[in-house]
Design a protein that fits this description.
Two copies of one chain form a homodimer. The first copy, chain A, folds into three domains: about 70 residues, Arc Repressor Mutant, subunit A, CATH 1.10.10; about 140 residues, ATPase, nucleotide binding domain (Nucleotidyltransferase, domain 5), CATH 3.30.420; about 140 residues, ATPase, nucleotide binding domain (Nucleotidyltransferase, domain 5). Helix content of chain A is about 40%, strand content about 20%. With about 375 residues, chain A is an alpha/beta fold. Chain A has twelve helices and 14 strands. Chain A is elongated, with a radius of gyration of 24 Å. Chains A, B: This is ROK family transcriptional regulator. Chains A, B: GO terms for molecular function: DNA binding. Chains A, B: InterPro entries: ATPase_NBD (IPR043129), ROK (IPR000600), Tscrpt_reg_IclR_N (IPR005471), WH-like_DNA-bd_sf (IPR036388), WH_DNA-bd_sf (IPR036390). Chains A, B: Belongs to the ROK (NagC/XylR) family.
Chain lengths: ~375, ~375
């Protein structure tokens, strides 16, 4: 049981501070009277809290020109300083690194990408991350010490501390203490998350899944991965490995997708997206072997996604990754799910496309900061069993 | 935000009452002094609350003989009256109906079963439920109006209101308003849950999964189902269909388990457990066709469970249902999961066996009553986003 009796003045101050800050962020530039009304706190309390927040730099008095001047001396107005700190969302992929920059409100104010070779070592890849971040910060005129949190999305099973337990898609990734390595560069909290998990968070925040809290994001590619939200919260699994449906093709000794999509008998390289795209192009032109290869591939994708849907029962499946944009993936998937699932979910294409992973990473950074700034409930609530 | 300022005297009374009741149930027969110490409430508050609880019949003064008599006038002691109300946990299966009876503390004080024909209609099956309950109550000397909550576990996808959305295992089950039908008999809250979900809850409560909050229960049979706990809470899925992995065999037009297990070319009847057991017996005796059939069946079960494990990433898989007890199921399952899952879970056999579903149903009834009696947090907490 949380203690409800007794009083902890510093806790009360923190609660009041978070309540006022939240109200400030939600409103445009409220007066003290507005804040008193919205929060239900007394005017002296609100005044004291606002003074304190101005001291931390999180709040500033809005220019008097914004206020009404009719009465000679207008009421003072205040606003949340989103520019008091900055956040980064970073995707570390096999072909490129992408970075998004925002203020404390999560609004994107800058973006940058750098290409990276599939075969790059972990050190080389991290160097590209640092270069992309440095470029972006310089262009945006944001000093590095203004960063308050960094989110990172990357392929692989990621431990809670940011270590990559298993990551076969990127050379040198398995065992890499990715969080620790990046924390050395940033000196602020770094959250590392599986790329499909980050994309799920992104689609829920700004993409195709804004209207549901129970969704699965499928990163459709040769080895599909997935991320799930249950009740609006990321389901990472006990060991961070939830949604690793790509391993399903190993079961029953089925052939790999690389073989399924081959038109020559020789498997494609798992990361050779161009070769895969060519097979799809050939199929559109009517090449029989390509048509058969694509059908095999789609059948496999449908099977993997259906297994996930049967286990999780989401309201919505969002399909992203490079394969989502190809013709002939979404409709067959929808049709087959309707045929085989007891309660078929809606199927939608990713709205964020290539930006999904970095956007989700940014949201994770924002979550971290919001928890710090606004985490009132965390302190005063107790959890049922 | 929950209102933290201002005071609601009736809310405060409820909170204090729940706190005292919980302390009373946890302790043996505490004195007012004990309760004051444990709850941190003032003595007059505790006295008032205990008076109120005695009024409701939930608390009684323990016999003075239990107290110390050394001081002439011993301190009064109080105890929670588990016998102030009763709970039922009911399994409605294809071959039998099982009922457990407990007091308000969830301790089982009676049990009964009745056989029922596979082919029984929904009405006949419900009649068997009523007969089993009536028998049990009579034998235990518990009046029907002492029932405070009833939990029910049954095959099928069950809606939140207790309607069976889809239930092919029992005749007439699909579309049956099972909760509504049973509420007519009981005049107390009735919680209906999918049987595998109920079994998952049971293994977590009293069985093989007491040490983890992230587990999957697999009801191993011809058409396997599963129930999952995530963070100690049942994951029902958006439409209550989570874990329906039995449908996986439809994908890719694989043959059904009934065909896999056949040694004659003719599929077995899906509910003919005896025919299935015979195939296993023949396999143990070395019959080649039976050995091959069992291998096919186990391979399928492993595939279905692996799909679930890859999607959910549990810490523990508990295998129950009739197939769990057969030789040659658990070890191959364990071995194959270790081979194919990125982070293989522990695999354990159900400890509750045939009692799992009814035990889980009883726990659901207990959850309901505890929420009513002890749900303090529910009222005073707020949820993040």
């Amino acid at each position: 049981m949380g203690q409800l009796t007794g009083g902890d003045p510093s806790l009360l101050r923190r609660i009041n501070s978070a309540v006022v800050l939240r109200a400030l962020r939600a409103a445009g530039s409220p007066t003290l009277t507005d804040l008193t009304r919205v929060t239900g706190l007394s005017r002296p309390t609100v005044e004291g809290v606002v003074e304190g927040l101005i001291g931390t730099g999180l709040v500033v008095e809005a220019g008097a020109e914004e206020g009404a001047r009719r009465q000679g001396r207008p009421a003072r107005r205040y606003r949340f300083r989103a520019e008091a700190g900055h956040l980064l969302g970073i995707e570390i992929g096999s072909h490129r690194v992408a970075v998004l920059l925002s203020g404390l409100d999560g609004r994107v104010i800058g973006a940058g990408t750098k290409d990276v070779a599939e075969t790059a070592s972990a050190d080389e890849r991290l160097e590209r991350v640092r270069a992309a971040v440095a470029d972006l910060l310089r262009r945006a005129g944001v000093p590095r010490d203004s960063l308050r949190a960094v989110g990172v999305g990357s392929p692989g099973i990621v431990e809670a501390d940011g270590t990559v337990r298993l990551g076969t898609a990127l050379p040198g990734w398995t065992g890499l203490p990715l969080g620790e390595r990046l924390r050395r560069s940033f000196r602020c909290p770094v959250q590392v998350e599986n790329d499909a998990n980050a994309a799920a968070v992104a689609e829920h925040w700004k993409g195709a899944a804004q209207d549901t809290d129970d969704m699965v994001f499928v990163m459709a590619g040769l080895s599909p991965g997935a991320g799930s939200l249950i009740g609006g919260r990321l389901h990472r699994g006990y060991g961070g490995a939830a949604g690793e449906i790509g391993a399903l093709h190993l079961l029953g000794r089925d052939v790999t997708p690389e073989k399924l999509l081959s038109t020559t008998g020789e498997p494609l390289h798992p990361l050779d997206e161009q070769a895969v795209a060519e097979v799809f192009t050939m199929a559109r032109r009517g090449d029989e072997r390509a048509v058969a290869a694509v059908e095999r591939f789609i059948q496999r994708l449908v099977h993997d996604v259906a297994a996930l849907v049967l286990a999780m029962d989401p309201e919505l499946v969002v399909v992203g990754g490079w394969a989502a944009g190809l013709d002939g993936v979404l409709d067959p998937l929808r049709r087959e799910l309707e045929r085989y699932c007891l309660r078929p979910p809606r199927v939608a294409q990713s709205l964020l496309g290539e930006a999904a992973v970095a956007t989700g990473a940014l949201r994770l950074a924002l979550d971290h900061v919001e928890e710090e700034l606004f985490a009132v409930e965390k302190t005063v609530t107790t959890r049922r069993r």
